[in-house]
Amino acid sequence: MSLKHGLLGLLSTWEASGYDIKQEFDGFVSVFWHSNLSQIYPELAKLETNGWIQSRLVQQVGKPDKKLYQITAAGKEELETWLSQPPELPKRKDTFLMQTFFSDQLSTDEALFQLQTFERKQREKIDEMEKFLDDTLQGIRTRQAIKKRIVVAASVYTHAIEQEKLHLAWVKNMMVTLEKARSIWMMTERSSRLKSLTDCF
Amino acid sequence: MSLKHGLLGLLSTWEASGYDIKQEFDGFVSVFWHSNLSQIYPELAKLETNGWIQSRLVQQVGKPDKKLYQITAAGKEELETWLSQPPELPKRKDTFLMQTFFSDQLSTDEALFQLQTFERKQREKIDEMEKFLDDTLQGIRTRQAIKKRIVVAASVYTHAIEQEKLHLAWVKNMMVTLEKARSIWMMTERSSRLKSLTDCF
DNA sequence: CTGTGCATGTAACACGTTACATGATTTC
DNA sequence: GAAATCATGTAACGTGTTACATGCACAG
């Protein structure tokens, strides 16, 4: 439902190829969307059939030819319609939170090991994101750029980093909790059956 | 890939029907996973075929019969294998962040209206979540319950609320930014073409 | 008598992932 | 000589959503 509008949104400010778009999905845009080439290419073709975008072939030297897409008037209309739709609250899917939630089925040591691994990966990700923001925001002050898209982009990305930091803080906190309770759980049950998740409180 | 393990995880501590599981996906579990009945029922059937869970029919009075599923030894093994898999960093998909990111294609007024609508919905959601946590945590202190699952559940849910609060704070901040810049943008461009998202900084 | 809750499912469709296929150029 | 980058796609498969189908009990 939304890859379509992601493509239209990206093409609303610059002419791009499927490959270019993939770069954005792997970079800046990754904080709110992602996709892969084998989905992007057919979707672009579909958008062109619908008349929302238009392509032109560009020959290059030393590189393969590429197909650049541009948004049409109809495409802009479609995008604006979508942008005006009532916003929806995100439905979360987080495998690691799920793994953690069910980690009472592992030993405390195993659970802690998983948390440690995640903590390291998460720290690395945050470092990369901060580096990326620094690199791209360096120029924002030097050049003019009080453009809407740029201001919003900076805010969205900064917020994304904050989100990731909060996540990291929680993992650390979870680790402390498990360490503290380790001795208590070492002797106790591993298979007590509850009636329901919420009922058991 | 993970609905399977979500079902196994839920069935690892209590016997449940597809309908019961759906309740959890709509309640507590919603902070990290969700699904709908028309996916859950066939998936449970598949898990039973694989020998990871076992069902029994239970007759009820005044209510339709139900099929309760229990995890098997093989199912527990499968679950533990999955729980020990290296944790993966979540790949975010957030339509509202995307709408906001592309909101330079709307007027400042329209963008602000979208943010206001989201802010209200988000506040309502947080209120509900806090109520839910209060209701369920009330009993945690009165009864024993230093069980692993419960401690982790409380931590996961509290963290989920913090996440949503951070999101709310960002929306508020975004609104202030737009208000401030409104006068500047009123006169300026709405269609300046950039070379690329990151290049434009 | 209408809607909500309880309870289980199927069918069609849309969306997303992985593997496969091609081929030139550049970097290690 | 091998791997990465640029560039575009198809095919098969797996996951997720929406619509449909059934039927009893209870509350308003």
Largest interface: A-B, 95 and 95 residues
Q: Work out the helix count of chain A.
A: 7
Largest sheet composition of chain A: 2 strands, antiparallel
Number of strands of chain A: 2
For the termini of chain A, the CA-CA separation is 38 Å
Multimeric state:
homodimer
Give the amount of beta strand of chain A, in percent. Answer: 5-15%
- What order do the strands of the largest sheet of chain A run in, or round the barrel if closed? 1-2
Calculate the mean pLDDT score of chain A and round it: 90
What is this entry, summarized?
Two copies of one chain form a homodimer. Chain A contains seven helices and two strands; from the N terminus they run αααββαααα.
Describe it:
The structure is a homodimer of 201-residue chains. The first copy, chain A, is mostly helical. The first copy, chain A, has 2 domains: 3-84, Winged helix-like DNA-binding domain superfamily/Winged helix DNA-binding domain (Arc Repressor Mutant, subunit A, Orthogonal Bundle); 95-197. In chain A, 62% of the residues lie in helices and 6% in strands. Chain A has 7 helices and 2 strands. In chain A, strands 1-2 form a two-stranded antiparallel sheet. In chain A, helix 2 (18-26) crosses helix 3 and helix 6 runs antiparallel to helix 7 (148-187). The longest helix of chain A is centred in the C-terminal third of the chain and has 40 residues, at 148-187. Chain A is elongated, with a radius of gyration of 23 Å. The two termini of chain A are 38 Å apart. Residues 189-201 of chain A have low confidence and may be disordered. Chains A and B meet through helix 1, helix 4, helix 5, helix 6 and helix 7 of A and helix 1, helix 4, helix 5, helix 6 and helix 7 of B. Chain A binds a DNA duplex (28 and 28 nucleotides) through residues 1, 3, 17-19, 35-39, 41-42, 45, 60, 62-67.
